[in-house]
Amino acid sequence: MKKILIANRGEIAIRIIRACHELHLKTVAIYAKEDEYGVHRFRADEAYLVGAGKKPIDAYLDMDDIIRIAKMTGADAIHPGYGFLSENEEFAQKCEDAGIIFIGPTVRQLQMFGDKVEAKEVAHAAGLETIPGTENPVKSLEEVQNFAHKYGYPIMVKAAMGGGGRGMRVVNSDDELPDAYNRARSEAKQSFGDDELYVEKYLENPKHIEVQILGDKHGNVLHLFERDCSVQRRHQKVIEFAPSIVLSDDRRKEICDAAVRLAKSIHYQNAGTVEFLVTDDAFYFIEVNPRIQVEHTITEMITEIDLVQSQILVAAGKDLFKDLHLPKQEDMEYRGCAIQCRITTEDSENNFMPDTGKIETYRSPGGFGVRLDGGNAYAGAVITPYFDSLLVKVCVQAKTFGEAVDKMDRVLGEFRIRGVKTNIEFMRNVINNPVFRAGAAHTTFIDNTPELFK
Ligand code: ADP
């Protein structure tokens, strides 16, 4: 492998380019017309306009044009990042057909995990416990009602092809059901082009714990411990930290081993995340994200393993142990605690409406134990309405969770961003809240804590 095309934009494109340069690999960026001044474009060795004439997001989804650019530039591999085409099996197949390595799992594995109902079957077969739910996609409102009467409310209606917290609805009673069902259906159709739904028992106040997995082409699978992503707003992650501070060592091992068992059962390749909802006495598989995740950074900080470089190397056929020299599972260790906040250009005083405009002032924090992964974050940058509103990811690491929280508070306080609204003050409210500081935040913490929004 000598040259990699990065089929993404913003912070994750820059993150991947950095990994490539450290591995002495050449990089090719692609950019939509609206990203003409996108930093990722200038960080790569070469950059090309993609999807000319298409809408901004559609440009990054233009599979044939991306493959054309890869062939034209002689790229050996494509890294899809997260979002966009990262979980698209058709794209992975097209890469394979063109003789280009797709840096991710196999086409079949993408298929398997793209459909959450099938994913649950695979998990079940590997002996993992799943949340009681319908075994097949539901065909009618009546079927959902029957499920609710059998298992009791509350239940959750979810899009089979869903992602990003969309297409899911909590239902508390028969009265709420028709409306929730129809809304989830139309949201699923609109967001994912498929209105297939399934139903699960709704767990009240679980924690979202996910395990980082890395597999190679030789059947080796390692876990790199867990992340706690319970701090969510409307089922979307806001703050993540690693490791969890409430799991006992035994519980941690049980959950991480379960994730490895699932991955090994299908010879999982590349980086992936096995997600669980955890209650006081059980842990339930919910889904696998077969790609690098936004919050991979905190796992890198506590394990000192570069996940993006690892992805590239295993895609090139390298062995986790013989070539990457990773420790055996029983020798794998983590150090301290890392926290990530996703700084967005969203106005937390106005229902998190994305803000746009020119960044007039940009002063970023720094110091010991601080990591920033930014996209177009600098004075003079113009924030457009075309893409997601993630501006910069800020991570800190310290010996303990408490010290990391203090550091994060200091770091957030050092930011000076003027010209566009951000969620920084809101983030400070969250991390200074006693529930968060006690490590007691569950998935509904933000949504049920109105004082955070003041
Ligand atoms: P997505 O793929 O859209 O991210 P997930 O299935 O990963 O959806 O779920 C996202 C979040 O939604 C979870 O972290 C959790 O907060 C909530 N959630 C999902 N399923 C359930 C459930 N059965 N009970 C309670 N909360 C749930």
Automatic annotation (TrEMBL):
ATP binds at residues 116, 200, 235. Residues 120-316 form the ATP-grasp domain. Signal peptide: none annotated. Residues 1-451 form the Biotin carboxylation domain. The active site is at residue 291. It comes from the Bacteria. Catalyzes a 2-step reaction, involving the ATP-dependent carboxylation of the covalently attached biotin in the first step and the transfer of the carboxyl group to pyruvate in the second. This is Pyruvate carboxylase. The chain holds residues 1 to 454 of 1142 of the full protein.
